[in-house]
Design goal:
Layout (H helix, E strand, L loop, with lengths): L4 E9 L6 H9 L6 E2 L12 E2 L13 H6 L2 H17 L11 E6 L5 H14 L8 H5 L3 H10 L5 E2 L7 H15 L4 E8 L4 H9 L28 E9 H6 L6 E10 L12 H13 L9 E3 L6 H15 L7 E3 L2 H4 L6 H15 L1 E2 L21 E2 L4 E8 L3 E8 L4
Parallel strand pairs: 4-5, 4-6, 9-10, 9-13
Antiparallel strand pairs: 1-7, 1-8, 2-3, 6-7, 8-14, 11-12, 13-14
Helix pairs in contact: 3-6, 7-13, 10-11
Length: about 400
């Protein structure tokens, strides 16, 4: 019999708040984090808007030397992990460090390090490239730095599945505890790709919106949607085997009960048009929990605000749930914070946990113009009602599909 896994700690750095409480307060207010990009001059860029993290200083979360050695995506991860660890009340002096692991992913790593060192290489020659360029740049360093900062010596992995990274990272941590390879896993995703090459690259794909109106830029499922808005930040959760959590008197936020994955095997950027890949991931997650499809009444959608994603995800939900799809509340947290790439699924996981706890489903902010082909309930207004399960979807470039099923905790 597989072991039960619960959530005992949460931490977040987001465009609408530098903690879980600040973020959740912003969500309940329908606050958005969109504005003109300030990190570089966007005069020559088609995309002008992003959802930047505001007021973050790594030195507030770690010592100055440690912060200086880390790129921003690692700083975000360590900061969110610090909040999650403190929130969990986990005392590492009382734990076997080899039973506490890390599963923290980043879809991209540090474009900043790559850009800066490429300029040095071109302008000043190879001898001027920074000695720490590689360990500052590579995506696994978020997991590595979290492990180092908190003395976590168990399994330490970095899942990279593009926009599904955060969800896969938490899912693989869940499986690790279920299987018995760890008692506690610090898991989530982090990203900081609002850089010249990041924005230019996604713009070249025509994936980013060119809207200059912060109120109409990230509008998932709306007929006028025109692409996603780049976000940044991190979300980290502490997952724990149930008996281990109870033995130390931990507070329990929710239980992770299902995890499903699939691949579209179709196209490097577009989801498969019939939604069959994402549908299968949802079906697998629900089956993993031993739940019935008709018991699922809420989905936190990937909902990127691109034409293809929102249409094909809608088709996926209909394919997986049939007629019951019409009874499911669906929202997109990206309507407030944009698309955090490798961190998106982790932030949305925390959103699901908070919603389950409070019996509150946030609105898809900015949704105004219905699309005939996206004809499900996308939560035009917030909904206050008790519900048992939250299903969170993430779909990544390359055809990666991942779904996590979270349940209100009952001992």
């Amino acid at each position: 019999m597989s072991r039960r896994v619960v959530v005992t700690g949460m931490g977040a750095i987001t465009p609408i708040g530098l903690s879980v409480d600040e973020f959740w307060d912003g969500v309940k207010k329908g606050q958005t984090g969109f504005g003109v990009i300030t990190k570089f001059d966007v005069t020559d860029y088609k995309c002008k808007l992003a959802a930047e993290v505001k007021g973050f200083d790594g030195k507030n979360y770690m010592d100055f030397k440690a912060a200086k050695r880390m790129e921003l995506f690692c700083q975000y991860a360590v900061a969110a992990a610090k909040e999650a660890m403190e929130d969990s009340g986990l005392d590492m002096e009382k734990e076997d460090p080899f039973r506490v692991g890390v599963s923290v992913g980043s879809g991209i790593g540090s474009l900043q390090s790559m850009e800066g060192n490429h300029s040095r290489l071109v302008e000043k020659g190879p001898s001027r490239v920074e000695p720490l360029m590689v360990p500052r740049m590579i995506s696994n360093m978020a997991a590595g730095n979290v492990s180092i900062q908190f003395g976590l010596r168990g399994k330490s992995v970095n899942v990279v599945t593009a926009c599904a990274t955060g969800t896969n990272s938490i899912g693989e941590a869940y499986r690790t505890i279920q299987y018995g390879d760890a008692d506690v896993m610090v898991a989530g995703g982090t990203e900081s790709s609002i850089t010249p090459i990041g924005i230019a690259g996604f713009s070249a794909l025509t994936a980013l919106t060119t809207s200059e109106d912060p109120a109409r830029c990230s509008i998932p499922f709306d007929k006028e949607r025109s692409g996603f808005v780049m976000g940044e930040g991190a979300a980290i959760v502490v997952l724990e085997e149930l008996e281990h959590a109870k033995a130390r008197g931990a507070k329990i936020y929710a239980e992770v009960v299902g995890y499903g994955c699939s691949s579209d095997a179709y196209h490097i950027t577009s989801p498969i048009e019939d939604g069959s890949g994402a549908a299968k991931a949802m079906e697998y997650a629900v089956a993993d929990a031993g739940a019935d499809m008709n018991e699922i009444t809420y989905i936190n959608a990937h909902g990127t605000s691109t034409h293809h994603n929102d249409l094909f995800e809608t088709r996926a939900i209909k394919l997986a749930f049939g007629e019951h799809a019409k009874n499911i509340r669906i929202n997109s947290t990206k309507s407030m914070i944009g698309h955090l790439l490798g961190a998106a699924g982790a932030v949305e996981f925390i959103t699901c946990v908070k919603e389950l706890q409070e019996g509150y489903i946030h609105s898809t902010v900015g949704y105004k113009v219905p699309d005939e082909e996206c004809d499900l309930d996308y939560c035009i207004s917030p909904v206050e009602e008790e519900f048992t399960y939250a299903l969170s979807n993430s779909l990544g470039f390359g055809g990666h599909n991942a779904s996590l099923l979270i349940k209100k905790f009952v001992d």
